[in-house]
Amino acid sequence: MLAWADVHGAVAVVDDLDARKAARAGGLTVWGTLRVIAEGVRDGRATEYVASTLVDALLATGARYPCGHGGFLEWARKNGLL
After folding, report:
1. Considering the entire predicted model, what is its pTM?
2. Residue 22's CB: how many other CB atoms inside 10 A?
């Protein structure tokens, strides 16, 4: 995925910290999944309800994020994403 983003000048969407560091060291633009979801809300492509429900579903499958169940919107606002 990082190679594809590099070749196509795209933003790499990566949550793994080591992969993000490697991508940035290689000059790539990297966003995490939570930023992509927040951008969708900011751009009007998703509602806050949908975004929160999606993040909660990802957490339920074992994803590890800096917000807990039901905490995405508060976390995103606190971090300037919403």
Report:
1. 0.88
2. 14
Mean per-residue pLDDT pooled into runs of 10, the chain (82 residues): 91 94 94 98 98 98 96 98 97
Helix axes 48-60, 33-42, angle to 10 degrees: 160
* Three-state secondary structure string covering 11-78: CEECCCHHHHHHHHHCCCCEECHHHHHHHHHHCCCCCHHHHHHHHHHHHHCCCCCCCCCCCHHHHHHH
Phi, psi (rounded to 5 degrees) for 30 = -130, 135
CA separation, residue 37 to residues 7, 20, 22, 66 (Å): 24, 17, 23, 14
Residue given tokens 């957490």 in the structure block:
59
